[in-house]
């Protein structure tokens, strides 16, 4: 301390208060071991999942198909046609004497499935001990259909090609074959999961850091120094920045990892939906972050958070399961309703068949919703934050004098 | 100078602070005393802008206080507030920056104060790892950074050991010497009496006494103690006096009419030996008890 009596200082910062708060949020979090470990663990999980997928890719399915004499010809056709339908299935044919021998072979696990004419005399039947022969079933279905179609066509004096002429449908992205739909499904799940995960983890973290400040009363020191809306803005921005950075890490790891699997051909088509997802993530996260801050400000001790954040955790669950399970008309409607739209619309974009204006409208609505939660959240936060002594109800916070 | 004028705050039907006015003159330490719930903390929170004001105003250097003025104030809230799980240097620099200090200046200032309070080696320790006394020291540093224009301290001495009290007092004195007004609340009346230039007493939200310690002790009806060579029973018959206590040769009187004490001394010397005749000023604790009764 010097004896200088002047109160004006030359080394004043022009840095706005919210930026100082943002930086503290980011720095204190990024140097936090549990945050780093959590992020690293997630990266390991993503890499592990992709590694597993790649390994499954490589793996071929060897199946033994049993056939009684009347079905050997068809079974052989299945064997020959298998690679054309699914290149990961290799079929070996075992000739069996009769139905009884076939059943015995099935029970003894000498064969995985038994192909024979259907008992009602119409078509073919594939019998196996359990239902775990999906790939074989797919292959058999396709080949039998082809064979029978060709024979029927010949009987009718025409050919399969002639019958199919003009019926081909070219599909655009990710709709059409099973694999594409599956990729869309998995990436869609990843989007929903990433959003849910980030909003919950960062939301909880944000709420408890608000309580920490409220409980330790440092908020009074801060409130005397800077406007509280700067504090809220800094906290929301800091956590949003962290969440987005973390998301980008996951996405980059995921996409780069994917390029090492056989799904790499889908990467270019994924870039559009991924960009949209980041946009929706940002707007959705900001909207929820303000609500989490309010949940924190309503509590007066960490123990209260459970109670004050219940409506939010319910909302998160609705978003999570809604994002995963909604389809058809419900999905279309939900893709415009904030904040659920934050996960549903990216999933729809991924699945394809979305008009160009739809994501724009949904994102606009979500951004408007975020603006409302920021506005309402700021008021509630400011009023509840300095109220001490027990939990504050929403009504109290709203009507409280400042 | 900080002026508090007719400050009022209600919580629902209860009036926590009821038209309280007083001054905190520059370069003086003003003690703020009163029972729990008397409204001290509420008043200080209103002064700091942490709590809204229902009626009245706070003036700083003659004009209504602004947010920027408050930013230059040092404030220590009643329940200590800092981040438990952050290194002390980092959070003190953060607080100083929020108050408008530059990063380099803040670091230097914090470092200097930490060393002064014997915490120079522990700058990287988390606050919660320090002893309570040391946590309190960190809290003090937080409130005097950057060199404050005024200090508003709610119970700054609670939980401090005598050594820490002394260094806190030294620190506060440095500030008052620089012309900084200091307002602090305390339950420790002996400390308040030793430190304060002025005193404000609150009871149930109202200001019941204010002034310098000497003024307060001189206020009220003057009392004198008289010790005689012989029996003091005759004092009862003197006019213009109330006898509070009479014990053999000693009498304690309260003066109702000006000059009555002079007649008393004259009469006493006429009757015989006078061993003692002194003005009795009540101890601060007595004034406090009377004011808040």
Automatic annotation (TrEMBL), chain A:
<protein>
    <submittedName>
        <fullName>ABC transporter permease</fullName>
    </submittedName>
</protein>
<keyword id="KW-1003">Cell membrane</keyword>
<keyword id="KW-1133">Transmembrane helix</keyword>
<feature type="transmembrane region" description="Helical">
    <location>
        <begin position="312"/>
        <end position="336"/>
    </location>
</feature>
<feature type="transmembrane region" description="Helical">
    <location>
        <begin position="356"/>
        <end position="377"/>
    </location>
</feature>
<dbReference type="Pfam" id="PF12698">
    <property type="entry name" value="ABC2_membrane_3"/>
</dbReference>
<keyword id="KW-0472">Membrane</keyword>
<feature type="transmembrane region" description="Helical">
    <location>
        <begin position="276"/>
        <end position="300"/>
    </location>
</feature>
<feature type="transmembrane region" description="Helical">
    <location>
        <begin position="236"/>
        <end position="256"/>
    </location>
</feature>
<dbReference type="InterPro" id="IPR051449">
    <property type="entry name" value="ABC-2_transporter_component"/>
</dbReference>
<feature type="transmembrane region" description="Helical">
    <location>
        <begin position="34"/>
        <end position="55"/>
    </location>
</feature>
<keyword id="KW-0812">Transmembrane</keyword>
<feature type="transmembrane region" description="Helical">
    <location>
        <begin position="186"/>
        <end position="207"/>
    </location>
</feature>
<feature type="domain" description="ABC-2 type transporter transmembrane">
    <location>
        <begin position="33"/>
        <end position="376"/>
    </location>
</feature>
<dbReference type="InterPro" id="IPR013525">
    <property type="entry name" value="ABC2_TM"/>
</dbReference>
Automatic annotation (TrEMBL), chain B:
<dbReference type="GO" id="GO:0005524">
    <property type="term" value="F:ATP binding"/>
</dbReference>
<keyword id="KW-0547">Nucleotide-binding</keyword>
<dbReference type="InterPro" id="IPR003439">
    <property type="entry name" value="ABC_transporter-like_ATP-bd"/>
</dbReference>
<dbReference type="InterPro" id="IPR003593">
    <property type="entry name" value="AAA+_ATPase"/>
</dbReference>
<dbReference type="InterPro" id="IPR027417">
    <property type="entry name" value="P-loop_NTPase"/>
</dbReference>
<dbReference type="Pfam" id="PF00005">
    <property type="entry name" value="ABC_tran"/>
</dbReference>
<comment type="similarity">
    <text>Belongs to the ABC transporter superfamily.</text>
</comment>
<feature type="domain" description="ABC transporter">
    <location>
        <begin position="2"/>
        <end position="229"/>
    </location>
</feature>
<keyword id="KW-0067">ATP-binding</keyword>
<protein>
    <submittedName>
        <fullName>ATP-binding cassette domain-containing protein</fullName>
    </submittedName>
</protein>
<dbReference type="InterPro" id="IPR017871">
    <property type="entry name" value="ABC_transporter-like_CS"/>
</dbReference>
<keyword id="KW-0813">Transport</keyword>
<dbReference type="InterPro" id="IPR025302">
    <property type="entry name" value="DrrA1/2-like_C"/>
</dbReference>
<dbReference type="Pfam" id="PF13732">
    <property type="entry name" value="DrrA1-3_C"/>
</dbReference>
């Amino acid at each position: 301390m010097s004896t200088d009596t002047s109160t004006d200082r030359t080394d004043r910062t022009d840095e706005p208060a919210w930026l100082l708060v943002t930086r503290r949020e980011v720095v204190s979090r990024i140097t936090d071991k549990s945050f780093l470990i959590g992020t690293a663990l997630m990266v390991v999980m993503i890499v592990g999942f992709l590694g597993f997928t790649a390994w499954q890719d490589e793996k071929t399915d060897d199946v033994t198909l049993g056939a009684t004499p009347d079905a050997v010809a068809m079974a052989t056709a299945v064997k020959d046609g298998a690679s054309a339908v699914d290149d990961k299935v290799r079929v070996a044919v075992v000739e069996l004497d009769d139905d009884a021998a076939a059943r015995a072979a099935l029970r003894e696990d000498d064969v995985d499935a038994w192909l024979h004419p259907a008992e009602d005399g119409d078509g073919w039947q594939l019998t196996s001990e359990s239902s775990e022969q999906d790939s074989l079933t797919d292959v058999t279905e396709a080949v039998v259909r082809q064979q029978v179609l060709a024979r029927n066509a010949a009987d009718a004096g025409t050919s399969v090609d002639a019958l199919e002429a003009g019926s081909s449908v070219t599909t655009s992205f990710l709709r059409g074959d099973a694999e594409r739909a599956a990729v869309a499904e998995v990436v869609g799940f990843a989007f929903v999961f990433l959003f849910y995960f980030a909003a919950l983890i960062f939301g909880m973290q944000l709420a408890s850091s608000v309580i920490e400040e409220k409980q330790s009363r440092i908020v009074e020191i801060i409130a005397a120094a800077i406007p509280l809306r700067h504090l809220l803005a800094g906290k929301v921005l800091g956590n949003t920045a962290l969440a987005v950075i973390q998301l980008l890490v996951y996405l980059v790891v995921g996409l780069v990892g994917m390029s090492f699997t056989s799904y790499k051909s889908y990467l270019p088509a994924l870039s559009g939906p991924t960009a949209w997802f980041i946009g929706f993530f940002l707007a959705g996260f900001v909207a929820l972050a303000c609500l989490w801050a309010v949940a924190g400000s309503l509590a007066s001790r960490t123990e209260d958070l459970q109670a004050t954040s219940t409506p939010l955790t319910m909302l998160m669950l609705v978003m999570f399961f809604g994002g995963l399970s909604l389809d058809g008309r419900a999905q279309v409607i939900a893709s415009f309703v904030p904040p659920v739209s934050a996960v549903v619309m990216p999933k729809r974009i991924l699945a394809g068949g979305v008009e160009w204006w739809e994501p724009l409208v949904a994102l606009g609505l979500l951004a408007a919703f975020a603006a409302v939660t920021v506005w309402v959240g700021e008021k509630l936060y400011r009023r509840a934050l300095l109220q001490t002594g027990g939990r504050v109800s929403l009504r109290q916070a709203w009507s409280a004098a400042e | 100078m900080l002026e508090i004028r007719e400050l009022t705050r209600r919580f629902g039907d209860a009036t926590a602070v009821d038209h309280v006015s007083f001054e905190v003159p520059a370069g003086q330490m003003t003690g703020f005393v009163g029972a729990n719930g008397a409204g001290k903390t509420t008043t200080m929170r209103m002064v700091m802008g942490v709590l809204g004001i229902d009626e009245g105003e706070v003036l700083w250097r003659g004009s209504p206080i602004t947010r920027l003025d408050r930013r230059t104030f040092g404030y220590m809230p009643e329940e200590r507030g800092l981040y438990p799980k952050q290194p002390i240097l980092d959070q003190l620099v953060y607080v100083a920056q929020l108050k408008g200090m530059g990063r380099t200046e803040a670091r230097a200032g914090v470092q200097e104060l930490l060393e002064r309070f014997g915490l120079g080696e522990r700058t990287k320790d988390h606050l919660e790892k320090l002893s309570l006394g040391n946590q309190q020291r960190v809290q003090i540093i937080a409130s005097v950074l950057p060199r404050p224009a005024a200090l508003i301290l709610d119970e700054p001495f609670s939980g401090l050991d005598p050594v820490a009290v002394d260094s806190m007092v030294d620190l506060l004195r440095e500030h008052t010497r620089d012309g900084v007004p200091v307002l602090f609340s305390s339950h420790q009346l002996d400390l308040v009496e030793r430190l304060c230039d002025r005193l404000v007493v609150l009871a149930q939200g109202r200001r019941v006494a204010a002034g310098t310690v000497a003024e307060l002790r001189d206020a009220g009806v003057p009392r004198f103690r008289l010790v005689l060579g012989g029996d003091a029973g005759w004092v009862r018959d003197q006019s213009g006096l109330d006898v509070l206590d009479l014990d053999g040769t000693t009498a304690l009187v309260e003066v109702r009419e000006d000059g009555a004490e002079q007649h008393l001394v004259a009469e006493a010397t006429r009757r015989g030996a006078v061993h003692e005749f002194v003005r009795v000023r009540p101890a601060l604790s007595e004034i406090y008890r009377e004011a808040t009764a």
